[in-house]
Amino acid sequence: MKCPKCGYVRQQQDNHVIEGVCPQCSIAYSKWKPDTAPVDKSAEPVEPGRFTLEPVVPFTARIVSRLLEVPEQVDSLTFWGRVGLYIAFFIWGWSFILGGIDWISIGGSFLHNANLPFHEFGHVLFSPFGRYMGILGGSLFQVLMPLGLMLAFILQRRDTFAASIMLWWCGQNFIDVSPYIADAPYRAIPLIRGMSEDYHDWGNLLSMGGTLDRAATYASLWFGTGVVLLLLSFGWGGYLLYRQHRNLGGF
Fold first, then answer.
1. What residues form the membrane-spanning segments (predicted)?
2. Share of residues in the chain with pLDDT > 90 (%)
């Protein structure tokens, strides 16, 4: 008889082995069954030094996912309130873009007076880093502060729509600073608290750097950066509202 497992053919000299048992591998012919079940490789022990890697979501994909995150359920009142806010900031933003680098329109906005305390605080904040940074700190903190709030809304509050408004504010601050830079060679913009033209931030900064003749170029760069940030905020906020509309519920 031939063994169904190992293929050994029982010989005459194997009479000492019980009938029905393979002399070669010792299995009982009648009880042996081939193992046809699929092998579960996940249950196999992992060899030492061998690692199995879980799928990893790319870092950029996680950032994009967080920036586009919206609530799973949005009530109608909140949604339409955000739509109204978006329209208001959209129109307001375009008034700054189309107005160009004009001190009368930019400085005449009440938002300039709201930005001014942050500008002055920036001088104090950066003053320990030397005179140059102390002067630059006013404009620098003015544009960085809204970015800090934007990150707080994204990471802590998980409110991406509010974050898009903070990006808008950052862009507006870049535009707000641009006429101040353009005025560096002339020092004609009136300063707060009756300060003389000797306290003109950008007049001093560009004079210290020997680049006073490039004031118009730097002003255009700051204005252009502000325009780009405003446009990004429009696109970001609008897309978030589109996604929220799909999750729109009742009152």
1. 85-112, 132-154, 221-242
2. 66
